[in-house]
Amino acid sequence: MNSEVEFVAVDMPSANRLTIHILAAVAEHEREMISQRTKAALAAAKARGTKLGNPRPLEALKYANAAKAHLKPAPETLKLIKNWKAQGRGLREIARELNRLGNRTPRGCPWYASTVRSQLLAAGEFTASS
Question: What's the number of CA atoms in the CB half-sphere (13 Å) around residue 61?
Answer without folding.
Answer: 4
